[in-house]
Amino acid sequence: MQAIILGSAAGGGVPQWNCRCPICAMAWAGDRRVLPRTQSSLAVSPDGERWLLVNASPDIRQQVFATPALHPRRSLRHSPVEAVLLTNGDVDHVAGLLTLREGQPFRLHATRSILDSITANRVFDVMAADVVARSEVALDEPFWPVPGLSVTLFAVPGKVPLWLEDGTPEIGAETETTVGAMIAANGRRLAYVPGCARVTDGLKRRLSGVDALLFDGTVLADDDLIRAGVGTKTGWRMGHVPMTGEGGAIAALADVDLGRRIFVHINNTNPVLVEASPARREVEAAGWTVAHDGLTLSL
């Protein structure tokens, strides 16, 4: 199984187009300690020929261009991408569907709740129903979006997408609106959880024994955005468990049997984006890798 992290940043990417927080300012200045990153997306294949996209980033065209494995190779119109899977309805995970509208057949997989949010917004009708089939996926039941690649979706603590919030959202509920994906091929397993509000005992049991975990790394500490002076929401309010601190991902998953531990979906205010920084060293000392665009895994 091959996996390519197409986009390793949270919504807005790095640098964010209108941001001069300390980290974005470094990126705008070309400081090599901060690599530019596009918005969250993953490509997975059992054989390097047929690919599944997990989440459709607004940056998907740029990501395909930067990834030779996803370039068209046959006839006038072709794509190695045979299916797209959505793990939630966040803008940074669904807006790229509007780019994948050029008459290219593929199948779109998601839970009923996520599909309903797509169907309710008619702009997504640009993906013609006779070209892009929509396939409802039940939780905890394996399916095969690409031959040789098994995927099982499971609920993780999360919240509804920001654009669907109505009043005060319930945060931390385990529903169909935020899911993780257990992806398997050739006896190897990869777990992809780009959004998670807290680490539960049930989630730890689910993840135990995987060969690689790609996990929500939106914020280092719960108050990242507040410290950076660019927002008032905490990580918890956004539905993202912090990397560090009590109940954070590093501590909560420390006793879980895992192969590679990789943080993805990293917000532009997260100090781990600065290479060789104290925050980066802390995370790496705990056994975690901070993802970058193009990071490739062969399992």
TrEMBL record:
InterPro entries in UniProt: Metallo-B-lactamas (IPR001279), PQQ_synth_PqqB (IPR011842), RibonucZ/Hydroxyglut_hydro (IPR036866)
Pathway linked to the protein: Cofactor biosynthesis; pyrroloquinoline quinone biosynthesis
Gene: pqqB
Matches recorded under Gene3D superfamilies: Ribonuclease Z/Hydroxyacylglutathione hydrolase-like (3.60.15.10)
Record SUPFAM superfamilies: Metallo-hydrolase/oxidoreductase (SSF56281)
CDD domains assigned: PQQB-like_MBL-fold (cd16274)
Cell membrane listed as a keyword: no
Function per UniProt: May be involved in the transport of PQQ or its precursor to the periplasm.
Protein family per UniProt: Belongs to the PqqB family.
Name by which UniProt lists this protein: Coenzyme PQQ synthesis protein B
UniProt entry tagged with the keyword Transport: yes
A family per Pfam: Lactamase_B_2
Keywords: PQQ biosynthesis, Transport
Top-rank taxon, per record: Bacteria
The species this protein was found in: Methylobacterium isbiliense
Start and end residues of each Metallo-beta-lactamase domain: 50-266
